[in-house]
Amino acid sequence: MVRKLRQQDLDRLIRSHRNLRLSLVVALLVVIPLFLGLAAAGAPAVLLSPVAGVAIGFLLLMPQRRLLKELGLTNVEAKQILAEARKR
Asked: How far is 82 from 27, CA to CA, in rounded Å?
């Protein structure tokens, strides 16, 4: 059973999810060339990549996690709600 949200909260969840996906694309478009440039310059990109990836992922997820906590949702519930919203 999918939990029901008020329309205002549903709109916030959808907007937050869209912003998360957009931020991920922009981050990848910036980070990948940066790491390729560092690797070409001889920097130890193998050591920097995992640390940077975790840091970027954490920073990108902060607003989404804050909203889910505010709405009292888990990740699974939010995914179910977003899937139901897409079906409509």
From this structure: 23
